[in-house]
């Protein structure tokens, strides 16, 4: 099984080494959100054969962005274990006042992804209109909408792009009716499993520290919604992840 989106910064966990060990031979894709966390991703992928990485600048961190980051990003995109640019995108929930800067940096990172043919991992929160307006200019770019939270109608509209939807612990929540509808109606070849660890812990461990191994609960819920086994969900989403990130597995 593949957790396609987790944050493995040491300071986020009580014991990150145990968290990584718990995944055994299963694969994780660790995500950066700024310069410091992206450096950590580079260290992780060097020391752990089961961990790949995506590096990028998150919209909520935009006030700390400098142009030096783009040069750093480009320097590391030829690393074979850096399989994408992320976590990047737009977030107007708390930080709408930085909208123009977010859009500028988002586009610059998308341009680099196009140049190096890298998948992008997109965070989009309360920013649907601008997100759609921007991604339509990159029709051939492989994209992942991380922690997908928009409606079924939006998901159906996005099927014309090379987009996968990141499905995480939220789908296990009792009040996640909108996401459950998306999972029921959208073909499973569009889904990737993710935990966003240490955040968004799925049931039955909600309220505890999340970890990549909890991807099994996400798979279990998707299986129940799709009428297939958890094992089949894991097999199919693993195939999806390998194709979407060009993983050498």
Explain how this protein is built.
With 249 residues, the protein is α/β, with parallel strands linked by helices. Helix content is 40%, strand content 17%. The protein contains 9 helices and 8 strands. It has helices at residues 16-22, 35-47, 68-76, 99-116, 128-135, 152-158, 177-185, 215-226, 230-245; strands spanning 2-6, 27-31, 51-55, 82-91, 119-125, 143-145, 163-167, 191-193. An 8-stranded parallel beta sheet has the order 1-2-3-4-5-6-7-8. Strand 1 (2-6), helix 1 (16-22) and strand 2 form a beta-alpha-beta unit. Helix 8 (215-226) crosses helix 9. The model has no long low-confidence stretch (mean pLDDT 97).
Number of strands: 8
Summing up helix and strand content along with how strands pair, one would put the structural category as: alpha/beta
- Work out the strand percent: 15-25%
Number of helices: 9
SSE string: EHEHEHEHEHEHEHEHH
In short:
Helices cover 40% and strands 17% of the residues.
What brief labels describe this structure?
alpha/beta; 8 strands; 249 residues; 40% helix; 9 helices; 8-stranded parallel beta sheet; globular
Topology overview:
Blueprint (H helix, E strand, L loop, with lengths): L1 E5 L9 H7 L4 E5 L3 H13 L3 E5 L12 H9 L5 E10 L7 H18 L2 E7 L2 H8 L7 E3 L6 H7 L4 E5 L9 H9 L5 E3 L21 H12 L3 H16 L4
Parallel strand pairs: 1-2, 2-3, 3-4, 4-5, 5-6, 6-7, 7-8
Helix pairs in contact: 8-9
